[in-house]
Design a protein that fits this description.
This protein has 274 residues and is α+β, with helices and mostly antiparallel strands. The longest helix has 20 residues, at 159-178. The protein has one domain. The strands form 2 sheets. Strands 3, 4, 5, 6, 7 and 8 form a 6-stranded antiparallel sheet that branches. The chain has helices spanning 22-25, 28-32, 42-45, 47-54, 59-74, 96-105, 110-123, 140-149, 159-178, 222-225; strands at 80-81, 87-88, 184-191, 198-202, 207-219, 231-238, 242-245, 259-273. Residues 1-7 have low confidence and may be disordered.
Amino acid sequence: MNGPANGVWRRGDGSNLVGVPTSRLASAAFNEEPTELRIAGVRSGHGELFRELAATGQRTDAAAVFARYMLETFGLAPPAVGADGEVVRRRYRASYLRLLRGWSFDANGCEGAVLKGWVESRFGLVPTFHKEPIAQYGSRAWLRYVEEKMSSRFHNNVILMQLDLVYEFAQWVLGRYFDDGSASWTLFRGVNDFSEHQIVERLSKKVVVLRLNNLVSFSRSRDVATCFGDYILEAIVPFKKIFVFNGLLEHDPLKGENEVLVIGGDYRITAAYY
């Protein structure tokens, strides 16, 4: 990422773990004709989980199976209470739920940096914004992002593997319970300006190709999106680029805003002033 090219930040062109060239994955064309994305080794390495999921009936049952598997595999049990009623202190364990909860409060906090770093390592997409625009390697914004994404507080308990499983579980749920043939959702995002997202191309008065951050929040509700800005961005997002969504997890950290976390890149966006 050597700075803006033609006034637009690079999407990222590094290696990834999903078997699709990053340049294609980052393109608007991918969203119109998405291909399969699988994080290498996740489903085969956790075959027991996906066999248990296949035997479930209701989506709530699947969420319970996933929560139990994560608890047992990564030791994410809630604090225990001793016989004297005191909470038993345990060594801090990084948790996917803590990261998602942190994102819901501040996408530009340390938790947000770790999540953006996971996208960078798995999908090859570099962030374009973290607290401020990131225009090049070595810039103040880039160094602050790197420092926060590598925070030792969050990098224990194989946190990136936990996030891999969240993505693959989301893909399993979307394919099992939501695929009505379109395999995509129309999502909405409210913004006040385009400081975080760069316009790549203007296709018409209201339609643009927009370069989104490598991980970005949308809502399934247009009404909810209007609470976050005067401009409403509308995008058709393929299931393959959905990381997590409200209602996916048993202990849902995203509830309340119908939130969907989306893998970024270039998107064809309809922008309307609310």
